[in-house]
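Lab meeting, action items carried over

1. Structure of the two-component assembly. Owner: GW. Status: complete.
Input record:
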Amino acid sequence: DGGITQSPKYLFRKEGQNVTLSCEQNLNHDAMYWYRQDPGQGLRLIYYSQIVNDFQKGDIAEGYSVSREKKESFPLTVTSAQKNPTAFYLCASRDPSTTGELFFGEGSRLTVL
Amino acid sequence: RKEVEQDPGPFNVPEGATVAFNCTYSNSASQSFFWYRQDCRKEPKLLMSVYSSGNEDGRFTAQLNRASQYISLLIRDSKLSDSATYLCVVREVPSKIIFGSGTRLSIRP
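Predicted assembly:
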């Protein structure tokens, strides 16, 4: 089945450690997105990529980094510079040639102890 | 000013009621508009796209007013299963997609 796979689903890390969240899609979509969601709040855009080897900062990019070396993959690194990394992280992809619907993975819950 | 603003609610209404959500956006060049639904601790799912002419899908009606930069969602004959958070979503050019903070809806029997 086509879809988006995020891993790990749950992750615990000590303060000061970098952590990388995986996002893989087999939908052949060009555009991919990372969002952060805090309890009781909406999604905030971290980074997005319209095409391989290109990405743009979203509204809350500080303390995060991404790469887009392959169409299928858009990993997100939460660095030690991110002051409040504990959150629910959602990856999505979109086929720009259609209605623009976002397809989401199931998310990764990061807890920094 | 937030790029996409919604009333956070919560809205608590009885089954069978009609409920309306509103959303405003700040970027007049925004291209596409959507309503997503998110259940607790799950990923958002597309409810419907929003077109300038207005569109309807069963009990759900969405409207867009580009002049006022305003989007609405109307749910008629609400069901218990409609309880969720409803997210207003705007695509700016070319590919930046922004979510509102969501409106929580709770339907009571």
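2. GW to write a short summary for the group page. Key points so far: Chain B touches chain A at residues 3, 6, 32, 34, 36, 41-46, 49, 87, 89, 91, 94-102 (CB under 8 Å). The CA atoms of residues 10 and 104 of chain B lie 5 Å apart.
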